[in-house]
Amino acid sequence: MADKSTKKSGGLGETVSVIIQALLLALVIRTFLFQPFSIPSGSMRPTLLEGDYLFVTKWAYGYSRHSLPFSPPLFSGRIWGGEPERGDVVVFKFPPNPSIDYIKRVVGLPGDTIQMQGGALYINGEAVEREKIGQIDDADVTEMDRPVDLYRETLPNGVSYETLDLTPNGVGDDTREFVVPEGHYFMMGDNRDNSADSRFSVGFVPLENLVGRANIIFFSIAGGASPLELWRWPSEVRPSRIFDWVD
């Protein structure tokens, strides 16, 4: 009986040890390598849709306290820091409330002057190349029951992506000039008429607030469905978006 008891105790101990090691490994991966995020709003349409699940690379810009779960104030600034490039799609902590994650595109770097005029983006006084490429009539992409104008925008460094123009003369189509402070970035959503970004409540985003760069969509489901609702997969999963790179 003693031998059997010892074996049972050893088996339980080994199981607990394996679980603890797995949890620690998951914590290391989440903190230093990849972190999964889901898209909760339409501010980055058509690049990212609600129901997209993506991996964010944590090492892209180095590490700050926001790289750790719950953002403990263990240190300030970034270590092994890299800087984002214009056009990167970035997850960051909302400056007025760092408990909230946002995802937007970097359009303004430190020292840049940013302005919107007539729906066009101006960087340092120069209009960013912007070409109307057609219309989208797909409510899953636009959230609208009518066709929506689609533009291709190309930043000065050659990064190119699509933007939606839901309505002419939107509230964010004409703005004042914004001068990006040192150590900060100007973020905008690709859904220009439906994005709370640096033109509005977000303001300038400190480098410290960056969590990581969005790289790849690993799952996507429409209709407000949860990935756990397997019975909805046949009608709601978006196969063409799975393992799609984020541009």
General description of the model:
The model has no long low-confidence stretch (mean pLDDT 91). By secondary structure, the chain is α+β, with helices and mostly antiparallel strands. Strands 1, 2, 3, 4, 12, 13, 14 and 15 form an eight-stranded antiparallel β-sheet that branches. Strands 7-6-5-11 form a four-stranded antiparallel β-sheet, with no helix packed on it. A three-stranded antiparallel β-sheet has the order 8-9-10. It has a single domain (2-245), classed as Umud Fragment, subunit A. A hairpin with a 2-residue loop joins strand 6 and strand 7 (126-127). The chain has helices at 2-33, 139-142, 233-236, and strands at residues 34-38, 52-57, 89-93, 101-108, 113-117, 120-123, 126-127, 129-136, 148-154, 160-165, 178-179, 184-188, 205-206, 210-220, 244-245. The longest helix is centred in the first third of the chain and has 32 residues, at 2-33. The protein has three helices and 15 strands. The termini are far apart.
SSE order and pairing:
Elements: H1 2-33, E1 34-38, E2 52-57, E3 89-93, E4 101-108, E5 113-117, E6 120-123, E7 126-127, E8 129-136, H2 139-142, E9 148-154, E10 160-165, E11 178-179, E12 184-188, E13 205-206, E14 210-220, H3 233-236, E15 244-245
Antiparallel strand pairs: 1-2, 2-14, 3-4, 3-14, 4-12, 5-6, 5-11, 6-7, 8-9, 9-10, 12-13, 14-15
